[in-house]
Amino acid sequence: MAKLTEIENLADRLHSTAIHLLRLVRVQDSVTGIAPARLSALSVLVFGGPMSLNQLAQAEQVRPPTMSRIVDALESEGLARRTTDKRDRRAVVIEATEKGTAILWQGRKRRVKFLAKHLSHLSEVERQQIADAIQAIQKAMAKSKRD
Amino acid sequence: MAKLTEIENLADRLHSTAIHLLRLVRVQDSVTGIAPARLSALSVLVFGGPMSLNQLAQAEQVRPPTMSRIVDALESEGLARRTTDKRDRRAVVIEATEKGTAILWQGRKRRVKFLAKHLSHLSEVERQQIADAIQAIQKAMAKSKRD
DNA sequence: CTGATATAGTTAGCAAGGCTAATTAAACTT
DNA sequence: AAGTTTAATTAGCCTTGCTAACTATATCAG
């Protein structure tokens, strides 16, 4: 085993914990019946409002062809719709449908409640530690642009 | 917007933070040139030692056929090897090769150092908050079996 | 105003990684 | 010895990532 500094050790544990947390929660999303990439894109549409395909692809950190196909699927499932942009007829405006919005909210509620149930077993102090850590982690990640 | 309780709000922020953290770090892994599922399985082999295909599949939470193909790829890349179990000739013992172990350690070091660099911008207090939160989160997740 | 260039999105085709169903081979049970 | 269970693989499907090439529209240069 290579030696790790104190901070590296923390980094390692943090990474591992994040993986396990998401693995645990992801099971809840599968209940929606919507595949993960689609659910994630739909979430951006619901919370970010209508946007172009390129914007959506950027938000999801995938290439336009990948997003084009995801939107195809969302459309055929009746969860989102495409319309051509009036000002620039090359572009499309993608938006969540009523159905897509409703299903997303249901799924989100399920996921959040599931995770909250776990957190409810902790003490008030422990939950405060998590809240503080979230702040700290976000602060640390925000530095990524200038490093 | 639906109303969320205090705990649900914490759950939501925790989820989102975990997603962003992993997204940030994953870029480092791509440098290894090993595809994510393969890297993850290799990691289990390196840290968990030789094991059967079923054990490895369970550890990675995938079905045996999925793992069988991942092991095929690891073998063809010279990162792991299969041998038949002496005691039970139906079973295989999968282990990381020297090369696989070395590459995994390099990658892990890169990832950990990258994350540690971010954490190093924080104060000692903030890092302690993260350490405490990791403990709390793991405790909360451990309850999942009995709920 | 026209031709060149740039931009938005799609289509085609490939690879990785997930799944179920069916198969093979060995081990266990009765 | 026959039937059942178990470990792994094979076959074949779907989703989701990519690049390269294409279409259609918009913009810019002369």
Polypeptide structure, described:
2 copies of one chain form a homodimer. Chain A is mostly helical and 147 residues long. Chain A has 6 helices and 2 strands, in the order H-H-H-H-E-E-H-H. Chain A has a two-stranded antiparallel ribbon with strand order 1-2. In chain A, strand 1 and strand 2 (92-96) form a beta hairpin. In chain A, helix 1 packs across helix 5 (98-119) and helix 2 crosses helix 4 (64-76). Chain A is globular. At the A-B interface, helix 1, helix 5 and helix 6 of A face helix 1, helix 5 and helix 6 of B. Chain A binds a DNA duplex (30 and 30 nucleotides) through residues 35-38, 52-54, 62-70, 72-73, 85, 88-92.
What descriptors fit this protein?
about 150 residues; homodimer; 6 helices; about 5% strand; mainly alpha; DNA-binding
